[in-house]
C-alpha cells in the first residue's frame, strides 16, 4: 500500500509485527497503533480487563514509546483504543466514557461507527445505528479526539460541525459559525 502511495499505516496489531515499526520509520509515513486483546480470530473469546481504561491506555502508551524509539516521530502517531476489538460491551463503554484518559496526551483515532456495542445497547440493526454512532462522536468530540472513522460521512460531518460551532460560541460568547470545508 505504501508503494502505491498510501501515506499512513493503520495497524490493528499495534506495531507487534517485528517488521512494522522499522518499515514505518524508514518510509516516514504516519502510523495508527490500535489496541486489540488477542488476535482477530480469538479476540472475542472471553476478553477480560480489571480496568480497561488503565490497561488499554498503558498498552497504547508503551506501543507509542516503542514506535518513537524506532524513529517514528510523535507527530506521525495516532493511538486507537480498538473499540470492539477484544472488548465486551462494558469495556467499550468505559473506554468511550474516558477517551482522554485512554489517549494520555497522544493524538487519538476513534472508530465506533455502527459497532456492535451500539446494537447491544439500543437493539438497532447495523444499518440503523446512525444515532448511536453520533452519540459516540459526541463522546469523541468532548474528549478532543483527533480523527474519527465513520460510515455516514455527511451526517457525521454535520453533527461535528454543529458541535464545533457550539463550542466556539461557548468560548467566545459570539456565534461560532465558520463556513463548511
Describe the protein.
The strands form two sheets. The protein has a three-stranded parallel sheet, covered by helices on one side. It has a two-stranded parallel sheet with strand order 4-5. The protein has seven helices and five strands. It is mostly helical and 181 residues long. The chain has helices at 20-27, 52-69, 89-97, 99-103, 116-122, 130-143, 153-172, and strands spanning 8-11, 30-34, 77-80, 109-110, 147-148. α6 (130-143) runs parallel beside α7. β1 (8-11), α1 and β2 form a beta-alpha-beta unit.
Write the layout of secondary structure elements.
Elements: E1 8-11, H1 20-27, E2 30-34, H2 52-69, E3 77-80, H3 89-97, H4 99-103, E4 109-110, H5 116-122, H6 130-143, E5 147-148, H7 153-172
Parallel strand pairs: 1-2, 2-3, 4-5
Q: What's the helical proportion of residues?
A: 40-55%
Put simply, the count of helices is 7
Rg estimate, integer Å: 17 Å
SSE order: EHEHEHHEHHEH
Structural class category: mainly alpha
Average of the residue pLDDT scores: 94
Work out the strand percent. 5-15%
The largest sheet has its strands arranged as 1-2-3
Main sheet summary: 3 strands, parallel
Overall geometry: globular
Total number of beta strands: 5
Weakly predicted, low-confidence segments: none
Amino acid at each position: 500500500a505504501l508503494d502505491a502511495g498510501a501515506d499512513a499505516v493503520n495497524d490493528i496489531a499495534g506495531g507487534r509485527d517485528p517488521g512494522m515499526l522499522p518499515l514505518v520509520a524508514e518510509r516516514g509515513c504516519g502510523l495508527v497503533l490500535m489496541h486489540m486483546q488477542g488476535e482477530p480470530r480469538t479476540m472475542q473469546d472471553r476478553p477480560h480487563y480489571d480496568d480497561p481504561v488503565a490497561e488499554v491506555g498503558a498498552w497504547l502508551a508503551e506501543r507509542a514509546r516503542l514506535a518513537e524509539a524506532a524513529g517514528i516521530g510523535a507527530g506521525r502517531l495516532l493511538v486507537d483504543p480498538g473499540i470492539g476489538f477484544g472488548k465486551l460491551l462494558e469495556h467499550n463503554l468505559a473506554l468511550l466514557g474516558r477517551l482522554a484518559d485512554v489517549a494520555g496526551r497522544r493524538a487519538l483515532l476513534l472508530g465506533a461507527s455502527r459497532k456492535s456495542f451500539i446494537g447491544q445497547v439500543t437493539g438497532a440493526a447495523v444499518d440503523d445505528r446512525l444515532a448511536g454512532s453520533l452519540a459516540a462522536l459526541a463522546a469523541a468530540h468532548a474528549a478532543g479526539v483527533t480523527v474519527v472513522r465513520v460510515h455516514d460521512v455527511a451526517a457525521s460531518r454535520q453533527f461535528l460541525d454543529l458541535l464545533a460551532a457550539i463550542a466556539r460560541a461557548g468560548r467566545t460568547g459570539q456565534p461560532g459559525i465558520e463556513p463548511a470545508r
